[in-house]
Write a structure and sequence with these properties.
alpha+beta, Umud Fragment, subunit A, Aminopeptidase, ten-stranded antiparallel β-sheet, seven-stranded mixed β-sheet, 17 strands
Amino acid sequence: MEKGDGTHPVKGSLEGLAGDVPHYTTPGGVLYLSNSGQLELLRGVHERGVPLRTMVRGSSMYPFIRNNDVVTIAPLNGRLPRIGEVVACTHPVTGRLVIHRVIKKNAHGWLLQGDNCPRADGEVTGDQIIGRVIRIERGGREVRLGLGAERKLIALLNRGPGLFFIKQIWYFPRRAAGFILRCLQALPLYRLLGRYLARSITVVPAGENDRALIQRRFHLFSPFPIPSPGAEVFYWVARRGSKVIGFVQLVRQHKDHRHWPGYWLFSLQVWPPYRGLGAGEKLTKRVIEEAQKRGAAELLLLVNEDNRPAIRLYQKLGFVRAVLPALEPVLEAEKKRTGRRRIVMQKKIEAAR
């Protein structure tokens, strides 16, 4: 589980546990920090013997720690890490802050690996391990699986392909159902049905409850590390009856912003069962209309270059591929981290009459 980077910040709050020194406690405090920022904060508070409660992002510890889970990282207080414990440490190669499981003790250190990673991080020494995860929260509730007595078995399975095969068996029914659904959505009859059902899909501004629902479902973050002064964000949801089935944002960033100036369509999401029914097109058109209303000369978006259905939709609505020189290094760095490359698409907007 790699902590947030400079492009996608995470939320961190320094909160003492029961019995901790009161003046180190800031209930409800929120800090938006980069990976290096959280690393320095973690080191600082642990020098004082204080735990750090923070939101994490990533899937390298899935399913035991998930994207947007809140973990409490406590100091080791001089004791050695134990097999199966989940610890925060600096990666032996990249030097970044990661939260992974101890799977083996070697002569000179410990071997760490993410529960959802195909290989170990490498050997880390005691001075690279900053603390251990003592609590996991998801949706406001404590999650115990992964930190109890079963942690040693998980570590043992991680040394070989055992955990990988167990997860493949566990998720097979869901993947099979998803494959069948995608096949159905590609059929002309399904599209014909979609055009009929699209009449009952409405796009409306998102309320606070809608945004909270989207955040829980898709773990969305702002695309910008720190919104510049004057940035504006507008939200819409697609509904079928009373049910929210999709979401989109229009972000207007200051024209002098280094990487993201102008108007951006961001976070277009449609629930899988409702894809192919026209919700994505309606949401995109709503963003285009709003950008035109606000006098935008162009609308930009980012999309994974292998997401062909989304690219076809955007091309249908007048978007073409574009290159923003200032953003290219950011996207290339992202590809090295994630293995996927996003591209910029642009639509020129005529002035509203």
